[in-house]
Design brief:
Elements (H helix, E strand, L loop, with lengths): L1 E6 L14 H9 L9 E4 L3 E3 L5 H7 L9 E3 L10 H4 L11 E5 L1 H12 L8 E5 L6 E3 L2 E7 L9 E7 L2 E6 L7 H10 L4 E5 L15 H13 L8 E5 L9 H7 L4 E3 L5 E3 L1
Parallel strand pairs: 3-4, 4-5, 5-6, 10-11, 11-12, 12-13
Antiparallel strand pairs: 1-2, 1-14, 2-3, 7-8, 8-9, 9-10
Length: 270
């Protein structure tokens, strides 16, 4: 399996527009991996995770072959993860491939409304409503949606994904996991890669809604205890806000050496 991070920031991006905070100033100055667009990822060539308003520029920037994308998992309907207007672009194509979108209730309703209200769109997109703890297959992937500790209005889920005996846990826009989640993860199996929300970066105690480095440590310890994470699991932190008070460079210096700090364009194979 392969994951490519197309974006790595929370809603505000880094540097955030018009922001004079120290993190934004220093990120602007340093450039490179310190510049972050909104979080999105591509698994192998065919499974997209989230569809935000940076999606079209991500496709162009990384020269993504969009004809290969067949499925898209949506985590929740905050605008840095779901932006329906750009999902409807194929209505202006004479021909386009069809994409299946998977989202829990709020996101599903929004996508379904967009498809229904747009002539021709049903030819190019299909929406499925997912539910926490109800696994499903999309293509060759076995997917388990888990309830996220995040704004309940947004029907937030995060995803455990399996293909060819490889497993990925993509857990962004969640605080520390609900207790029931650990049992479901234990049953799902050992993970080759775990990607955790780190919106609060080096700030203390982001516990509900989002996480930070200190709460990431707690979650990783719990995942180790139930043996779904071991010394071979790749650990990634991602989805950063300037309010976390850390640039990419700061994070690399301040997190455990075996963690990978996410950045736009990071690609990992496992
Ligand atoms: Zn977000
Ligand atoms: Zn800022
Ligand atoms: Zn969110």
């Amino acid at each position: 399996m392969k994951i490519k991070y197309l974006g790595s920031a929370a809603y505000d991006a880094i540097p955030a527009p018009f922001c004079c905070c120290e993190t934004c100033r220093r990120s602007r100055q340093a450039g490179g991996k310190n510049i972050r667009t909104r979080t999105q990822a591509l698994v192998d060539e065919d499974l997209l995770i989230d569809f935000n308003s940076d999606t079209v520029s991500h496709f162009l920037q990384y020269n993504i072959d969009t004809l290969q994308i067949q499925h898209c998992l949506i985590t929740h309907n905050h605008s840095d993860h779901l932006y329906v207007p750009d999902m409807l672009i194929p209505q202006y194509s004479r021909e386009a491939v069809k994409v299946m979108y998977y989202a829990a209730e709020s996101g599903y309703k929004e996508i379904q409304k967009g498809i229904e209200e747009t002539p021709l769109m049903s030819k190019f997109a299909h929406a499925y409503c997912v539910e926490p703890y109800k696994p499903f297959y999309c293509g060759k992937y076995r997917v388990l949606p888990l309830p996220a500790n995040h704004d309940p209005q947004a029907s937030p889920v995060f995803y455990a994904i399996e293909k060819d005996e490889k497993r990925l846990l993509y857990a962004h826009d969640t605080g520390v996991f609900f207790e029931d989640v650990y049992e479901a993860l234990r049953k799902f199996g050992r993970f080759d890669l775990v990607s955790l929300d780190c919106t609060g970066a080096l700030q203390p105690d982001y516990r509900n809604g989002h996480m930070c480095v200190s709460t990431n440590l707690e979650v990783i310890e719990k995942l180790k205890k139930i043996k779904v994470v071991d010394e071979h699991t790749i650990l990634v932190i991602n989805h950063f806000s300037h309010n976390g008070a850390a640039t990419y460079d700061d994070l690399v210096e301040n997190v455990p050496k075996n963690w990978i700090v996410g950045y736009d364009g990071l690609t990992l194979e496992f």
